[in-house]
Amino acid sequence: MNKTFLFDALREATDEEMKRDKSVFVLGEDVGHYGGSYKVTKDLHIKYGDLRVLDTPIAENSFLGMAIGASITGLRPIVEGMNMSFLLLAFNQISNNAGMLRYTSGGNFTIPLVIRGPGGVGKQLGAEHSQRLEAYFQAIPGLKIVACSTPYNAKGLLKSAIRDNNPVIFFEHVLLYNLQDSIPSEEYFIPLDQAEVVREGKDVTIVTYSRMRHHVMQAVDALLEDKYNPEVIDLISLKPIDIETIVSSLKKTHKLIIVEECMKTGGIAAEIIAQVNDEYFDLLDSPIIRLSSQDIPTPYNGSLEKATVIQPQQIVEAVKNILS
C-alpha cells in the first residue's frame, strides 16, 4: 500500500492505461506541457508525446466533437475539462452525439470516451466555476456518470472508465485533489455501477457522494459520541444509481437522509427519492430528508458561499430530528 494524493492516483490510472493500450490518449486545455490545471497529466507528454497528450485550443465544443469522432474510429479518448463548468459549451456534443450515437447507428459505433475534470463548489471560485453538472447530465440517455471521493476509488474507477465502451462522465471535486490515502501497489478496478457502504449501522441510512462523503463522516464522528449508529453509503455511481444497495440498507434502518452538493431542484437526491417512493415506499418509517445546496448561483463571498452548501452540523441535526 502506498500513500498517494488523489490527483496522483488519477495520474497513475491514466499512465497505466496509456502504457497498456496505445489507443488511449488525453486531450484538453493545458493537459500537455503545463501538466493539467491540477497536475493530473503532469509529465505524461514527455513519456507519450504531444499527439497522445494533446493540448487543444479553448474550444470545448470542438475538441469534444473531435474526441467523439476519434472514439468512433477506435481510439479511446480521455477529455479533461479544465473546469467541468466549461463543458456546458459542449452540451450538444455530449448529449446529441456521445450519448446517442451508439443507438442511432444501430450499434455500429461504440463511444469509449471518458470526460473528466474538476467540479463542485471550491473556495471562492465564483458562480460560473462552481457548477455541479451531475443534475444537467443525469437526464441524458446513454451516459454513465461516476463521482470519485477518495484516492482509492479515484484510481480504480478511472481505470474501469477508460476500459468501458460507453461514454463516462467522471466527476472529481476541486477540493479533494490533495486528499491523501493508501492505495494498493497492485492493479485493481472498481465497478462503475456500484455504491460503497462506507460504514455499517442500524439507525438511519445516509446516502451521499463526492466531497459530501467527508462532511458526512465528520458528522458521524459527532453522532457516535451521542450513541447514534448511522449507516453511510457513498453512491459513486450517479447514473445508473445503485438503488439495490440503498434498499438493502433501508430494510435495516427504515429511515433515509440524502446529502449532496448538487442543487435541490432536479438533483441526484430528487431522483433517489422518486425511485424509493415509486418502488420501496413501504420500507420507510418517516419522510426522506434531503440536504442539498441552495438553488442559487454560488456566491463569491466566502461566508455566503459556505452558507449555500450543507455543513456537518446540519447533517448531525437532521439525524437527530429523524430519530426523535
From TrEMBL:
Catalytic activity: N(6)-[(R)-lipoyl]-L-lysyl-[protein] + pyruvate + H(+) = N(6)-[(R)-S(8)-acetyldihydrolipoyl]-L-lysyl-[protein] + CO2
Transketolase-like pyrimidine-binding domain mapped to chain residues: 4-179
CDD domains: TPP_PYR_E1-PDHc-beta_like
Lipid biosynthesis found in the keyword field: no
Pfam families reported for this sequence: Transket_pyr, Transketolase_C
Cofactor(s) it depends on: thiamine diphosphate
InterPro entries: THDP-binding, Transketo_C/PFOR_II, Transketolase-like_Pyr-bd, Transketolase_C
Domain of life: Eukaryota
Molecular function (Gene Ontology), one example: metal ion binding
Keywords: Chloroplast, Metal-binding, Oxidoreductase, Plastid, Potassium, Pyruvate, Thiamine pyrophosphate
SMART domains: Transket_pyr (SM00861)
Gene3D superfamilies: 3.40.50.920, 3.40.50.970
Subunit record text: Heterodimer of an alpha and a beta chain.
Task of the protein: The pyruvate dehydrogenase complex catalyzes the overall conversion of pyruvate to acetyl-CoA and CO(2). It contains multiple copies of three enzymatic components: pyruvate dehydrogenase (E1), dihydrolipoamide acetyltransferase (E2) and lipoamide dehydrogenase (E3).
Protein's recorded name: Pyruvate dehydrogenase E1 component subunit beta
Native organism: Kapraunia schneideri
Lineage of producing organism: Eukaryota, Rhodophyta, Florideophyceae, Rhodymeniophycidae, Ceramiales
